[in-house]
Structure formats: C-alpha cells, structure tokens
C-alpha cells in the first residue's frame, strides 16, 4: 500500500500539470500518508515507515515527518472543528489535509508561524494546484491568531455545562469513545476525581508511546537489546523500552526473529495465559486468533522449555504468514488457517483468545483508529468475540484454562462478552486473572478481571479474563 499510493498520486499530479519538487520531503511524506489514510483506509504505522525508507528520509527529517503525521492524524477531529469554524462553506479533502498539517505545526509543534504557513502554501500548490493557495494562506493566518487552548475555548462546550464534550474536543477523541472510556474506568477501582482520571487517560492516549521490545526467552536475552537509551520494562521480565527512538530493525536480535517489537501490555497477556494454574496435563496450547503473531511468538517461547506444543490459528491467510514469520525460530509450533469459530481440533490444555476488537486500548499507536471506528462497530464485534470465546471453551479440556483478551477496555467487548458466555453455563468457572500477574501490584484485589491502562501502567489498555473448564 505504501508504494502504490504515491504512484497513483503522482499520476494525478501530472494530469493536473501541478508544479513539483518545491516542498521538503518530510512534509510531502506526511501529506501523502494523510491522503492514504483518507482515501485507502491505510494505517499510519504501516504506511509511513516504508515510505520514509523508500524516499531516503532519515534522522531529524524522519522524526519531524513522524511527529507531523501522527500528531496531525491524532488531533484531526479538533483541528477540523477549528477549520470548519473558519471556513464554514466547506473544504475539499486534499486541501483539508494540507490545512490539518499546517494547523498542527502552528498549534501542536514548535514550528515558526512563517515556516508553517509558507510551507503549507507550497505544499498545496505542489500537491493540489495553484487555486487553493490563497485560501490556505488566509485560513492558516487566522489559525495563528490564537493558541490551541484559546481555540478549544472557542469551539468546545464549557466544561461546567458539558464536561464530556469539553474533554472530547480538548483531547481530540470522539465523544462516544470518551463516554466508553469513562464507563470502563468507573467499572474498576478509582482514586480521586473521576473526570481527572478520565482526562489523564485521554492525555496519555495522545502521548507517542515508547517503543518496547520483547526478548523471546530461549532465543534472546534482554541484555542483547540494551542499546543506547534503553531501560527494562516495568512489568515483563522480557521487556526493554527504548528511550531515544531509533529503528528496532537495526538490532540483530529483532532482525533475525529472536526478539520483536511488542507493547508490554501484550507481553503481560501472554504471561497470564501461560501462568494460570491448571488441573492436569499442560502439553497442548492453542492461540485461537494468532495474527499478526507477537503473542504467539512469546507464548511459543514460553512453551518450549515446558515441552508444550502450540497451535497458532489465524483466519486470514496473509496474517497467518505473518504468524509463521514471527514463530519461525521457535520449535514445536504449528500454524493453521481457519475460522476460529468453527475450528475442529482435539481439546487443549490452554487456549488464548486475543479477540478482534475496536482497538480503543491502543489509540496511542494507532492514531487513525479513534476517527475510523463507529459506535455501531461494537455490536458486530461483540457477536464475533462471543462466538470465539464459546468455541474456545469448547476446545478446552476439563481442567484447562481459557484466557480471553482484548485491546479494548469497552465494557461490551470485555466483561460483557465474558458474562454473556458464562450465563447459563455450569461447565465454566471464572478465575481471578489478577493472580496470574502478581508482578503488577496495583492489580491485587481488583479481580476477577485485569484491566491495564496507559496512564496507570504505561501499556495499551489490555483486558484479560480467565475461565476454567470444569
């Protein structure tokens, strides 16, 4: 996708006869990614890195392009309110992306006003044409009259009248997402003011996440990942957090598959799934929704010294290939491609269901997800999650344990799914999942569910529940 899109865009430029080559490569790369997100439903984290490599953008220019792209996409909802306030007659999508980039430089980055505005004018001339250049110049000059806080005061409802609406604009989250996160926080333990806790979570969602690596046990040691600016993870003994950026693929252990890039919350899911106490044998493990393979690789690495065999199932063939690549150095792993709802295999001792979800727990690293998801997506995903969990229980032998996880704290996708599956069943017992993660002390006494949070644990907002088949 990263290679195809610029080619199509370049052809469109040639048809318009627009001048080319007047914009610095970093800003042009950011613009091309925004157009791919808008037109092709692309993902920033998949499109931007190869585009930067293909165009030879590195060092400080690559860092600038990364912050400009991620920051613009992350805050685009709030920027759109400002732009629509200034241009109520409407803005064409390509011009809007130029204005979003310029607005982020003015309000969200320390780019001098003249540089942010003049480069945006050059960008629209190059990418769209001469006609909207004056419009872009005029709108951005108006944006520059106020700072971001003042603009929020102008376009957001007052906090005393509509605190959720205010937080939605201030922290650039759709209102329905803010409401869902508020409800999820309220369902667990809270300290202090609930709105302050919610604001802290939304603020954490807008902070670029630290790159976290996993040293797959038996293949690599955390010492091998100790590059400049690295430090141990908070909770996983296999985690290393990078503090100075850099390309993880430059690390030998990552490049050859002995280590990988994996959020510490995802590592904790694998640790919980492999440490829950069983009744009986512990030799057959299943990852029911294994793509793209990070949890499967860590699970397989933990299985190997215990003599356990892992079956990693993934419904999508291209994602199954990613799983196979992730586990290629690990013994006794079988990758299969099947719909997890109808998978037929002999019973397993452990089953992990890392179910497809809205991804509301990973908004830090997937900036486009908050604007792409809709409330109506939840119902369809819940039906899928429920079916996968039911099948996971059926594939678990008596005495075995199912670990259900989502990268979303939405109550319907988390405890709602678990409680629906438990209702009316006498062959399943809900376990206290916090017991499987004693290294996270603030989880103690909060069970039976585990809910991690970016603002409390520095991880994605992973949910974990565990069930034992009687």
UniProtKB/TrEMBL annotation:
Instruction: Specify the protein name.
Output: 16S rRNA (Cytosine967-C5)-methyltransferase
UniProt entry keywords in alphabetical sequence: Methyltransferase, RNA-binding, S-adenosyl-L-methionine, Transferase
Per UniProt, what is one GO molecular function of this protein?
A: RNA methyltransferase activity
- One Pfam family cited in the UniProt record for this chain: Methyltr_RsmB-F
Tell me the ranges covered by the SAM-dependent MTase RsmB/NOP-type domain, including all copies.
184-470
Family of the protein in this entry: Belongs to the class I-like SAM-binding methyltransferase superfamily. RsmB/NOP family.
Active site residues according to the UniProt entry: 407 (nucleophile)
Functional note: May act as RNA methyltransferase.
- Record InterPro entries: MeTrfase_RsmB-F_NOP2_cat (IPR049560), MeTrfase_RsmB-F_NOP2_dom (IPR001678), NusB-like_sf (IPR035926), NusB_RsmB_TIM44 (IPR006027), RCMT (IPR023267), RsmB/NOL1/NOP2-like_CS (IPR018314), SAM-dependent_MTases_sf (IPR029063)
**So where does S-adenosyl-L-methionine get bound?**
289-295, 314, 339, 354
* Superkingdom, natural source: Bacteria
Query: What biological-process GO terms show up in the record?
Result: regulation of DNA-templated transcription; RNA methylation
Q: Which SUPFAM superfamilies match?
A: NusB-like, S-adenosyl-L-methionine-dependent methyltransferases
